[in-house]
Amino acid sequence: MKEALRTLFWLAVIGIPLIFVVLQVIAGRSLGGQVTFITTLTCIFLAGAAVLYVAVFAPNGAHAPALRPVAPRKTRLPPRLLAYAARC
């Protein structure tokens, strides 16, 4: 737990300002470039988080629990409304 907090601290102290500097250098004042850079960075972060999640919580190749099927609810809508919705 201490190691995780230490890593989070250094990420906040070094990583976030560094990302801001790189963002300004690469994209400059172009808003489209900034959005593209942040979007790409976010996707990379989410991919890394997914890999770490699998590495930590499923070390033996365990799969996520299967979702059980959910029975459809009976509708309380009047048949006339359903017929209208089906036509559209």
Architecture overview:
By secondary structure, the chain is mainly alpha-helical. The protein contains three helices and no strands. The protein has helices at 2-27, 31-57, 79-87. Helix 1 packs antiparallel against helix 2 (31-57). The longest helix is centred in the middle third of the chain and has 27 residues, at 31-57. The mean pLDDT is 75.
Shape: flat
Which parts are unreliable, with pLDDT below 50 for 5 consecutive residues or more? none
For the record, give the distance between the C-alpha atoms at the N and C termini, rounded to a whole number.
55 Å
Q: Output the radius of gyration.
A: 23 Å
The residue-averaged pLDDT reads 75
How big a fraction of the residues is strand? under 5%
The number of strands is 0
Helical segment count: 3
Supply the helix-strand structural class.
mainly alpha
SSE order, as H and E? HHH
Let me know the largest β-sheet: none
Which percent range fits the helix content?
Answer: over 70%
